[in-house]
Amino acid sequence: xxxxxxxxxxxxxxxxxxxxxxxxxxxxxxxxxxxxxxxxxxxxxxxxxxxxxxxxxxxxxxxxxxxxxxxxxxxxxxxxxxxxxxxxxxxxxxxxxxxxxxxxxxxxxxxxxxxxxxxxxxxxxxxxxxxxxxxxxxxxxxxxxxxxxxxxxxxxxxxxxxxxxxxxxxxxxxxxxxxxxxxxxxxxxxxxxxxxxxxxxxxxxxxxxxxxxxxxxxxxxxxxxxxxxxxxxxxxxxxxxxxxxxxxxxxxxxxxxxxxxxxxxxxxxxxxxxxxxxxxxxxxxxxxxxxxxxxxxxxxxxxxxxxxxxxxxxxxxxxxxxxxxxxxxxxxxxxxxxxxxxxxxxxxxxxxxxxxxxxxxxxxxxxxxxxxxxxxxxxxxxxxxxxxxxxxxxxxxxxxxxxxxxxxxxxxxxxxxxxxxxxxxxxxxxxxxxxxxxxxxxxxxxxxxxxxxxxxxxxxxxxxxxxxxxxxxxxxxxxxxxxxxxxxxxxxxxxxxxxxxxxxxxxxxxxxxxxxxxxxxxxxxxxxxxxxxxxxxxxxxxxxxxxxxxxxxxxxxxxxxxxxxxxxxxxxxxx
Length: 575
Hints:
RNA binding, mainly alpha
């Protein structure tokens, strides 16, 4: 914490004052500590007390003034320096760039720098090229890059300072291109480079991965003379980002050695692609080989447990986390979501209440979403009011949960009030998800005309979720005319969806109109639309078993059906 840092710094100063002799390293160490804390007043006093000030001391003060936004003082300090080195120039350019003074930085390098200082300018040029790239000014970065002479003798450059491009110059310019997705220009530079280092290869692989061109990334990876841990992690992350998880796993399994970031990249890749079994399997393997999970590992595995949901494993992870380290905000938020979706809303509330000052927007949204998931609309609305009193600004996600909660509980007036609060008090433009929840809320309360009016007044085109909500409400209220209209609209938006046909079929079937129900089924077959089989799952002894409708693939299927037949016979006897 800030108070503990201040305490340690005060103790360091007392120790410094008690020292019988102090060398330059001692003075600069304390000076750097003041500068890192932003205590430029104390740093200035110490600087004035120094019996001898080397170039490091001056550079430290220039850095501190720039970090504090005191550009004029930084420039005065730089100009007063009796001796400057290459780091001095780099510090000045970096400080000007970080304070948005890129034009001044370039003017200093290109117009005011004397010839005798040019041997110190290369690092500063590289720094400014990177600064231009960070703000998207790639053309300016390239103009500076082209000002640096191309150098022919790489051996000479390694033994003396010469103002000509070094490998950092090339790599920095390539990064400028890859940052904007211009991998073609980056590749042209890469191919022109007189000498490449590992960072050059990794920059290019990362650039291809960023634009999802994993074919080129993989080809380049295999051409690398000696890929390091970063190279392997880049290629693994790239394949998980385009959904090729098993291809990524192939690279992961071939890695000569794995760091925690490698495990986390692969585990999160499984989780982000919805392969929750893969997430848990790899996490288990990590523990088997003696790996030590960190906060990122637990976040991914908890997210998988929340999505399945798999409460027993999530609870075990919670215990392991508490034994390993104090949960931070991100971990606590993941635990709230996991417990909420796993049916343990009381545990989710307990974690939320324990967070106290650690709560962030995600924490509030997670518990509000948990209440919505459990059909506890009143608690969701109460927590929202508490959130407002705490001064936390809600987002569109907050209101999706609130509207859905009101819809599940049939709280129409409260739902309208939430929608009005979102649009008029917080100025949040309603998205498709909000309209879908609002239509569902109004329609299922029987006000189908009002729901249709909401759809017709939408400033954005209604999608399948909006028409699907309306169709569901129409079939629930047995309004055949509006149901057919909604089904027609839904079929136009999503011709391959079976939902409109199935809902219309069920509407007729419930009323005993079997002929009309058959027509709906025939129309679905004529359009080539197929109903995807649903599936269910059960968590038994820390293993999740999934079943499709009519599934016979489970190894214990005979025993399962025998038990189900017993249940069926018992229920008939009971009735």
